[in-house]
Amino acid sequence: MAVMAAAFQVAGVGSGIVTGTAIGRESGIGGTSCSRSLGDSLMLTAGVYRPCRSAKAAVMKQCDCHPVLLNGFDGLRSSGPSSLPRFGNESSSSFASIAGAQINSRRCRSAAATALPRPGEARASTYKVSVLGAAGGIGQPLSLLLKMSPLISDLRLHDIANVKGVTADLSHCNTPAQVSGFMGPEELAEAVRDADLVVIPAGVPRKPGMTRDDLFNVNAGIVQSLVEAVAKHAPKALINVICNPVNSTVPIAAEVLKKQGVYDPARLFGVTTLDVVRSNTFVAEAKGLRLIDVDVPVVGGHAGGTILPLLSKTKPRVEFTAEEIESLTKRIQEAGTEVVQAKAGTGSATLSMAYAAARFAESCLRGLDGDTDVYECSYVQCDVTELPFFATRVKLGRKGVEAVVPIEGISEYEQRALEAMKPELKASIEKGAAFVNKEPVTASAS
To answer: What is the mean pLDDT of residues 225-240?
Structure first.
């Protein structure tokens, strides 16, 4: 399979510690150069790609065993496999034109040399990743996408259901990651032992008519037990919580880690990437833009009215009418319900969630691997508001969250929505913490 390159310039934030004031206006969400989300610039499943900050275009790289999915991907044009470059192709004078840019092949080879190996060569750094809930509706496609990543050498799948079949199936894919399966509570410890990254899609999916309390009552205990195992057997792992309601399950995970004495707020993430993916898709459709160009930061939480797309910070800059803002915001907030209803009781947004989760996991691994230009929106502990947890754009690095981008210069509509969401988000956070600490709480509204 051909190796290919992608090109685009990336605007990022400066270095800083985990604080809401570490990054100035010009590099923050309210600044003039809000960072582009790399995952929207190409298919994650095309392989690991890494930005070249000093170049006008970044190089998209992949091993020959990772397919490039070009069909329907606007902005990537090729006359066929022969037009795409391969690593080490010294006879190539330039890479294919991608995202409107031609890159000198010598520059691209230089950038690629520090990222991924040539086909058949081993990476200097590969990582151990555990997926808890790997046999479920999200877990299976997520595991497939992770199996395709050359950043992963050891992929461990766990579930209470029969995950052995999923393991056997994935093991036939000729990609470098070695897959192993673990089933039930008795094998959970080995499934997460010394993992670099633990992804948790486990839990009951949302069904028509379910309230948030219904979802919480089942999934809270699942997250608690899984994170307890991670705390004991992989205390340094980055933890990606997908299990809903994320607004409460992330605080649950935090309290569990605190009780075990291993809590590091920089290593715990609520995966809200699906909100960003949806926002980019809906805005591109509404405005006739190429998906490769669109980046909409999404802040707040990961449920209903707590999801706040900052349309005023859309890249490229786009003008929206008041009606468009209202309509797009509502659709993004209710997109999960849209899928649940469309599936007529047979499931939730499993495929798009798996894609978004794989993108975020890949970003975490790129940060661990030393990439200095990795930015994603995520629900983390931070001080961008008075609430202990909030979704905002963060810079990822070797220790997890390296910096939190402050929310500045947003529109009046967005500021009102941000203030309006706080009571609900505060209640969800307190409910999660109280669950672990066995404190009485008042049931939230459905």
So the answer is: 99
Coil, helix or strand for 196? Answer: coil
Query: What average pLDDT score do residues 213-234 get?
Result: 95
At position 223, the amino acid (one-letter code) is V
Whether residue 158 lies in the annotated active site: no
The pLDDT, as a whole number, for residue 440 is 65
Q: What is the pLDDT of residue 347?
A: 84
- The number of beta carbons lying within 10 Å of the beta carbon of residue 53 is 14
What are the percentages of helix, strand and coil residues in the chain, rounded to 5?
40, 15, 45
Please tell me which residue in 66, 158, 233, 302 is annotated as part of the active site. 302
Q: Is 177 helix (H, G, I), strand (E, B) or coil?
A: coil
Does the pTM exceed 0.85?
Answer: no
Q: Where are the alpha helices (DSSP H) in 288-349?
A: 322-333, 335-342
CB atoms within 10 A of CB 170: 21
Contact 99, 92 (CB under 8 A): no
Phi, psi of 117 (to 5 degrees): -75, 165
Q: Closest Cα partner for 77 from 100, 111, 105?
A: 100
- Listed by start position, the domains of the chain span 17-40+125-446
The DSSP annotation for 97-138 comes to PBTTB--BHHHHHHHHHTTSPPTTPPPS--EEEEEETTTSTT
CATH 3.90.110.10 fits 17-40+125-446, yes or no: yes
Q: CB-based contacts of 311: which residues, under 8 Å, 6+ apart?
A: 283, 296, 318, 320, 325, 328, 329, 411, 414
The residue to which tokens 């600490």 are assigned: 437
State both tokens at 234: 């992989």
